[in-house]
TrEMBL record:
Residues 68-80 have a biased composition (Basic and acidic residues). This is Unannotated protein. Residues 68-97 are annotated as: Disordered. Transmembrane segments: none annotated. One of its GO terms (molecular function) is glycosyltransferase activity. Residues 110-262 form the Glycosyl transferase family domain. It comes from freshwater metagenome. The lineage of its organism: unclassified sequences, metagenomes, ecological metagenomes. It holds the Pfam family Glycos_transf_1. PANTHER family: GLYCOSYLTRANSFERASE (PTHR12526), SPORE COAT PROTEIN SA (PTHR12526:SF638). InterPro entries: Glyco_trans_1.
Amino acid sequence: MVNTVHGLYALPEDKFAKRSVVYSLERLASMCSDAELIQNPEDIATLLKIGVPSKKIRLLGNGVDLTRFKPPTDGDRESFEETADTQPETRSQSLRDKLRGELGVGASTVLCGVVGRLVWEKGYREVFEAAESIKRLGIDAVFVVVGPRDPEKSDGVDERAIAAAEASGVRFLGMRSDVESLYAAMDLYVLASYREGFPRSAMEAAASGLPVIATDIRGCRQVVDQGLTGLLVPARDAQALTSAILEIVKDPIKRSEMGTRAVAKARAEFDHQRVIDITLETYERLLAAKRVSRQ
């Protein structure tokens, strides 16, 4: 049996009772498993401290489809169905410009994106405060949120908060199947989560050529190289988040350089094929060992 850990549900800073329950369950799972595939090295350090045998642990990492998530280029043109009245300029319109036009975002406006379920744990309280502060400053920036509302969750973002955020200019796009196209329209990605395993949306954004502003927590630290591919800020700190967003919004050269480095990091570290290969190799190795032991 292989236990794949997609982020621990308790962190060292959590209350003792929660840590005790979660860590006990993780130890029990490790006793029943032949291998433990862990997404990030900080979780490995925690598991080793609570007694999970190192011989069972392997760093899996995480990844995304790099053929789907990539920076927009001049060659990435929207494929419109040509009709008799289709104008040449329409056919050559870039996907980025098309989507920004649909959102009512001008060429000079900095589009800040967030992708994720609408639950408070994703840091929306701080994102909304940052958006409101930036609007008050008169900065030419727009925030878009892509993801489903989750009213069934105990920490789901309530309708009153959503309405207040909309009044501050935040656009809520709901669940979208064309998220890779939306990344192409963005200039900056924001992830203000309180906890993550190894955030897929941040990897997607980085692979799409976006600088990423994320909270300084495990998982996010594996995606963002501080000051190089983006910025890390303390969790639950709206002022720090606002300052970081302003730093990148006001500096197009820094945005471009960070985005270029983010793509390079994504291509080197976030290819989902590598994760698939490690997973398959682990199962094949264990199956081979089982066959030998039965001979």
